[in-house]
Write a structure and sequence with these properties.
Elements: H1 2-7, E1 12-16, H2 24-34, E2 39-43, E3 46-47, H3 53-62, E4 75-79, H4 80-85, H5 96-107, E5 109-112, E6 115-116
Parallel strand pairs: 2-5, 3-6
Antiparallel strand pairs: 1-4, 2-4
Amino acid sequence: MNLGEAHATGDVLLFLHADTRLNLDHIREVLRALEDPDIIGGCSPLTFDFAEPYLSLYSRLSMMRFWLFHYGDGALFVRRSGFDRLSGFKEIPIMEDPNFLRRMRREGKQSCWKLLS
């Protein structure tokens, strides 16, 4: 993800997992959130396109504003300035996105929206 950021040219970075779909409404939600200059970035609570009790529970938990349930699965966005202040993603083997989200939460205000994953 840091390599992707190094090649990106925009002021806002969106990191998207391969099994996640975005549509125009999701992009609008990001743009709306970024109208608030205090928003550093945000993430997507998860929804799934098929019913399964475990996934339904996970989806509900991901909508809570509690770090334990906000894994990077799905999508996260951040202003480039915030990404730079956080020195990007830690070079760790797994869970780099939850680590980034925890650090981002300490750095500034976040916004979340629903996605289909």
